[in-house]
Design brief:
mainly alpha
């Protein structure tokens, strides 16, 4: 890996992790969230930080890889789309208290993640593989989001 690629990798990981952390910090679960009825498989709150940090590192690495290797193709655009949707979810859910709208965002994000995996599978397999745990976690988050919406009518 040359210096330019190493800097790109570091930049993507730092921006992705920092962006996710800032948005998470700005839209923390508050009293509204604490009062909601949660589904049976709702994990403890402490698990979300480490899981998302790990996923953001994977997302950043995949983003750097496709930016370096696949610039000019759909891959970087789909990568950016899923990140924009990802960063939109927390403020809509936690700040606007809109589990209905956040579920729509989450479903669009999952489609973008799956599209990224499909497009990257034959072009950049490591990037596709880095997105598999992300797809699994976002699918689980979809269950949590949908259940919260169902259990707590607006």
């Amino acid at each position: 890996m040359n210096k330019s690629h190493a800097l790109t990798l570091i930049l993507f990981v730092v921006v992705t992790v920092a962006g996710g952390s800032l948005i998470g910090y700005a839209s923390t679960p508050g009293p509204w969230y604490q009062e909601l009825q949660k589904p049976p498989l709702n994990p403890p709150n402490w698990i979300f930080g480490p899981v998302w940090t790990t996923l953001y590192v994977f997302i950043g690495i995949a983003g750097a890889r496709v930016f370096i290797r696949e610039r000019g193709t759909w891959l970087p655009k789909v990568w950016l789309l899923q990140l924009v949707l990802n960063f939109a979810w927390s403020p809509v859910f936690f700040s606007l208290h809109r589990p209905d709208l956040s579920l729509a965002i989450l479903l669009a994000m999952l489609v973008a993640i799956l599209a990224f995996i499909a497009l990257a599978w034959n072009r950049d397999r490591p990037s596709a593989l880095l997105f598999l745990p992300y797809a699994a976690w976002v699918s689980f988050a979809g269950y949590l989001n949908a259940a919260i919406w169902w259990l707590n009518p607006l």
